[in-house]
Specification:
By secondary structure, this protein is an alpha/beta fold. It folds into 3 domains: 22-106, no CATH class; 152-281; 287-292 and 300-411, Rossmann fold (3-Layer(aba) Sandwich), CATH 3.40.50. The protein contains 22 helices and 7 strands. The chain has helices at residues 28-33, 40-49, 57-64, 71-75, 82-97, 99-106, 114-126, 137-141, 172-178, 181-192, 209-213, 217-230, 242-249, 251-254, 262-269, 275-282, 310-315, 320-327, 350-353, 355-372, 382-393, 404-411; strands spanning 168-170, 237-239, 272-274, 302-306, 332-335, 376-379, 400-403. The strands form 2 sheets. The chain has a 4-stranded parallel beta sheet with strand order 5-4-6-7, sandwiched between helices. A 3-stranded parallel beta sheet has the order 1-2-3, sandwiched between helices. α21 links the parallel β6 (376-379) and β7 (400-403). α2 (40-49) crosses α5, α10 packs across α22 (404-411) and α16 packs across α18. The longest helix is centred in the last third of the chain and has 18 residues, at 355-372. The protein is globular.
């Protein structure tokens, strides 16, 4: 007797979960907790049955226990946008039960971990000369959510600068305020590739991914409008952070109900160029020359593991360009994880809210990294890099950790040098 299939979703409707369980095979959180309600299927079932108006601490905790990595949607036969539904549920939870209900499980738990606050305090003091803007997602990721002024969510004024064909560089909050060497490396590489020096847009802001993940959808939409207004067309927008690139490309969905801004969001998203893809396409006919070796005899090749950020792998998806860039250099040997690409467990706010789960996911990944023999781990997601650097600091891996742009800049030479 054949099993009856559920009716297909009508155009414009979100399909319903078939309860097949495919999501459980790829969910990083489920792999370390073993709890069904941590899978995409489990969370969707709870969303069908429970109203955020009657939210309990347990409900908020379950909604927060998701990396929003997109792995479940990638294997879902119905392509249910689980991450988008969870972000909407978190927003509803904030609206109906108060933001503290979710914040306790996203960033509020820092208050119960004074050792972590002790470690973050010197970081905040160190970067005080270049203060992080109040609406930057870094504040959320550092566990220090600010009180935003009311004007932060007002529609931005139209850009006064005329449209330009000179590429923009979007380095994101981390690459601008905490690790400016990333942006400098991107500019250097583009110069080596013969691309006109990119410009930094005036008035740009945080991409809004952290706000989106925390359920602050109004703030996320306000940041989207600001960035769209700050980058008038038709120039390409080269983005050095994988997660920023994925979220900037998501603006048409984020502003789908805004008739004024949706067309502009679509045009804006069409100009987003993730850094590795842009560089690989630019140098496909003439690869960047490698840095000359110390002598006539070639030395041993450097074993490099490229880590696929989940947002890049599942949401754009981009996996081959970074590997092509690295493989084109004769002094490198690209190695892979024994069981293929995996989530690092950082997840923006997830590692702050659920450090034990994040550490367990990272430990599994680190064990496979050791098996690969990698001497350098590289990626383009700043969150992933932070987590890999944590693994290196804790001596879970014997490898150095570098952003792909910095690594490529060091391994290539300028024309004529």
């Amino acid at each position: 007797m054949k099993k009856r299939s559920q009716p297909a979703a009508k155009p414009g409707e979100t399909p319903t979960c078939a309860k097949c369980g495919a999501c459980s095979t790829v969910c990083p959180v489920y792999r370390v907790t073993g709890r069904e309600y941590h899978t995409g299927r489990g969370k969707l079932h709870l969303l069908e049955k429970l109203d955020p108006a009657a939210a309990s601490a347990a409900y908020a905790e379950i909604l927060s226990r998701c990396l929003l990595c997109g792995a479940c949607s990638a294997v879902c036969s119905r392509k249910i946008p689980v991450a988008a539904q969870l972000a909407a549920a978190r927003a509803e939870l904030n609206r109906r039960a108060g933001e503290q209900a979710l914040k306790r499980h996203l960033v509020g738990d820092l208050l119960a971990r004074p050792r972590l606050l002790e470690l973050l305090a010197p970081l905040a003091r160190r970067f005080n000369p270049a203060p992080i803007p109040a609406d930057s997602g870094l504040n959320l990721r550092l566990g220090l959510p600010p009180q935003l002024p009311a004007e932060a969510e007002k529609p931005p004024k139209p850009a006064t600068a005329p449209p330009t064909t000179t590429p923009y560089l979007f380095a994101g909050c981390y690459g601008t305020y905490l690790a400016p060497a990333i942006g400098h490396a991107v500019q250097s590489l583009l110069g080596k590739a013969g691309v006109e020096a990119p410009q930094r847009a005036a008035g740009w802001g945080c991409c809004g991914l952290a706000a989106y993940g925390a359920g602050r959808l109004d703030q996320a939409r306000g940041l989207a409008r600001r960035n769209i207004a700050a980058h008038p067309g038709p120039a390409s927008i080269v983005v050095s952070c994988a997660s920023c690139a994925a979220h900037l490309s998501h603006y048409p969905q984020l502003l789908a109900d805004d008739e004024q801004w949706r067309p502009r969001a679509e045009e804006f998203a069409g100009r987003i160029k993730e850094f590795s893809l842009f560089l690989q396409e630019t140098t496909s006919d003439q690869p960047l020359p490698p840095t000359p070796g110390p002598g006539p005899e070639p030395g041993p090749r450097l074993k490099i593991l490229y880590h696929d950020p989940c947002h890049l792998r599942f949401m754009l998806p981009i996996t081959k360009p970074p590997r092509k860039l690295l493989s084109a250099l004769p002094q490198t040997e690209l190695v892979e994880l024994p069981r293929g690409p995996r989530c690092c467990g950082h997840g923006g706010l997830f590692n702050l809210a659920h450090p034990t789960d994040a550490a367990a996911i990272l430990a599994e990944l680190a064990a496979e990294c050791r098996q690969s023999g990698a001497e350098i781990v590289t990626s383009t997601c700043t969150g992933c890099l932070l987590h890999w650097q944590k693994a290196a600091t804790q001596q879970l891996i014997p490898a150095r950790v570098l952003h792909l742009a910095i690594l490529l800049d060091r391994l290539t030479s300028s024309a004529g040098s």
